[in-house]
Amino acid sequence: MTSKTYKPVLAAFAAALALGAAACGSNDEGSASGSTGGGKLSGKIAIDGSSTVAPFTQAAAELFNEENPDVQITVGTSGTGGGFEKFCAGETDISDASRPIKDDEEVPVCKKAGVKYGQVQVANDGIAVVTNKALTVDCLTTDQLKQVWNKGSKVKSLADVDPKLPDTPLSLYGPGTDSGTFDFFTGEINGEEGVTREDYEPSEDDNQLVTGVEGDDGGLGYFGFSYYEGAQDQLNLVGVDSGDGCVKPSTATIQDGSYKPLARPLFMYPSAKAMARPEVKAFMEFVIANQQDIAEAAKIVPLTEAQAGEAKTELQNAEQGS
Amino acid sequence: MTSLAYTRTRRSVGEQAIKYALLAAAAVSVLTTVLIVLSLLRETVSFFGDVPIGAFLFGTKWTPLLGGDQQSFGVIPLLTGTLYLTAIGLLVAVPLGLLAAIYLSEYASPRVRKVVKPVLELLAGVPTIVFGYFALTYFTPTILKGFFGIEVNQFNALSAGIILGLLVLPTIASVAEDALSAVPASLREGAYGLGASKLQVSLRVVFPAALSGVVAALILGASRAVGETVIILVAGGQVARLGLDPTVGYQSMAAFIAATARGDIPTGSIKYETIFVVGMALFVITLTLNALSIRLVNRYRQVYE
Fold first, then answer.
1. Residue B109: inside a domain, yes or no?
2. Average pLDDT, integer, range B255-275
3. Cross-chain residue pair B141–A216, CB shorter than 8 Å
């Protein structure tokens, strides 16, 4: 709806600009830098990093572009590590990360290159483990999940990991190998990123995973928590026990991190140098101010009020660099 | 005389221009094919620099997107998956398509035919994504599971294959019908004159006489099924597995390409090159099928004309 109401305004704005540009010829550069608040921003922002954060950044870029169409934002998905490599080499303005920067490996590289930055938490990520409604299971331990999902697993039904559980033949669903959720889940559950049993049904489209788990009596799958929220009536949510008792994922348990180990904070790292540019500063401020809407659009868990407040402070620190 | 000569030159200039325009139009499609082959070739060569060709052609495990020692490039599961889904589709489409063609050409009254044939061809115009979701959200749960009570997975070969058959059905029916209708009326009349029944005329006279066109229809249908992407991507599952159980899903070559290209694999990596290698293999298969159909058509045409 908002985008619709913007359009006539934008068109009028663009027409006015065109007229203005035609009238005052080459003088437009001066007027652009005149004000940073309501003025016309332009320029390029290069972002790279985690593929989990990318949909969030992409959504943020699209919403930001509705108001600032002349700022070109590119969002790469080289992974958190690959993103930091480019970031510390000064190639990107903002790095997307699904974990904090590593003190022992990455921080020294950035330091050596003189790249100063801030660490801003922008959202929360959580993975839901779900089953078909007919496959009633309340809770699985991380070890049981590993038995089901690990490389070479021969587990055919949940009764294989616990005789008390149903012996319906399992039909497994999970994200494709390009997904950040896949890396996160395999890393936390199977112990190494990318290691998984091969005979599960992968899809990059989470809605298709929902359809699959919902359709098979023995359906068991994992995907981003927000996709569960959209389909909670059709699915059975499984709690995860990492040793301290069973915790079900919810917006609250993901935000406070008590849903272990399948919840984590997501970050954006703006460099201090980039933050000196009005378009980057405006973009980062936009992200924090609109994190709720962006998170909703990107199907990711938003920040709490407290986290958003912290993010604002972090952003101010980022301008100085740390 | 002079005026006549004048018009002739003008006409010949015009003719020349048209000739070159037509040549250019024909050249565009040839050029496109050449460019496609070249683009596939570059990545394919680079792929086989890393993976032995034997491991690709004869390997039985296709997990190119996994890491480390789990990565494997055997194309056999993809190939058999493609052929298996195509076979199920043709099992549906060939009998139905041919019967429909015979009915329309030999039995239907002109009035019926005038209505039924366009409707049949309309089916060919339905976007394949619609077929895909029809298979996934209606055919699998309501027809296969609900009505027939078959215990299939949500993503399964049976549903995707049957719907794939419905997709190629109009192609087969329409092309075969054209071939049957093109058989000269004199052949039919001669057979009737000898006292043959309508069924005998249809099956023993008209059908064999139109065989070249019918075979072309079948191969066209098979080609279409082999290359079909979206139905299998949506309803056929994405596990590249070996086997013949129709209640589970299989990945086809085209569906692999679509699924992989949609994810964000890094350009230039070996995972990226698999897209082109599989594309190349698919291209070779359809090219072979088409070449085969041309040969068959020519052979049978010589016999009957």
1. yes
2. 84
3. no
- Domain borders along chain A are 42-124+264-320, 125-263
pLDDT digits (tens, 9 = 90+) for B206-247: 999 898 889 889 988 999 999 899 999 999 988 888 889 999
- Counted domains in chain B: 2
Note the ipTM here.
Answer: 0.75
Residue B239 belongs to domain spanning: 70-304
Residue A26 has pLDDT above 50, yes or no: no
Of A193, A201, A214, the CB nearest to B237: A201
**pLDDT averaged over every residue in chain A:** 85
User: Using an 8 Å Cβ cutoff, are A117 and A109 in contact?
Assistant: no
Band of pLDDT at residue B2, cut at 50, 70 and 90:
low
Percent of residues in chain A assigned helix, strand, coil, to nearest 5? 45, 20, 35
pLDDT tens digits for range A253-311 = 999 989 989 999 999 999 999 999 999 999 999 999 999 999 999 889 999 999 999 99
- C-alpha to C-alpha distance for B201 and B114, rounded to whole angstroms: 22
Q: Return the CATH class of domain A125-263.
A: alpha beta
Using the beta-carbon criterion (under 8 Å), do A199 and B238 form an inter-chain contact? Answer: no
Beta-carbon count within 10 A of A141 CB: 16
Residue B58 within a domain = no
Position B113 in a domain: yes
For residue range B51-97, list pLDDT tens digits in order: 999 999 999 999 888 877 888 899 999 999 999 999 999 999 999 99
pTM higher than the cut 0.90: no
- Between chain A and chain B, the number of residue pairs with CB atoms below 8 A apart is 64
Phi/psi of residue A251, nearest 5 degrees? -55, -40
Q: Are residues B193 and B79 in the same domain?
A: yes
Chain A interface includes B200 (CB < 8 A): no
- Name the minimum distance, in Å, from the CA of B273 to any CA of chain A: 15
Are residues B131 and B222 located together in one domain of the fold?
yes
pLDDT of residue A10: 42
Closest chain B C-alpha to A157 CA, distance in angstroms: 15
Question: For domain A42-124+264-320, is the CATH number 3.90.245.10?
Answer: no
- Which residue is listed with tokens 């005789």? A163
Q: Is the Cβ of A292 closer than 8 Å to some Cβ of chain B?
A: no
Check A215 against B259: CB less than 8 A apart.
no
Between chains, do B67 and A194 touch, taking CB under 8 Å as contact? yes
Q: Where are the alpha helices (DSSP H) in B127-269?
A: 128-134, 157-181, 185-193, 198-200, 207-209, 211-227, 230-235, 253-262
DSSP secondary structure of A33-73 = TT-SSSS---EEEEEEE-TTTHHHHHHHHHHHHHH-TTEEE
- B240 domain-assigned: yes
In terms of domains, do B20 and B89 share one?
no
> Can you read off the two tokens belonging to residue A120?
């801003």
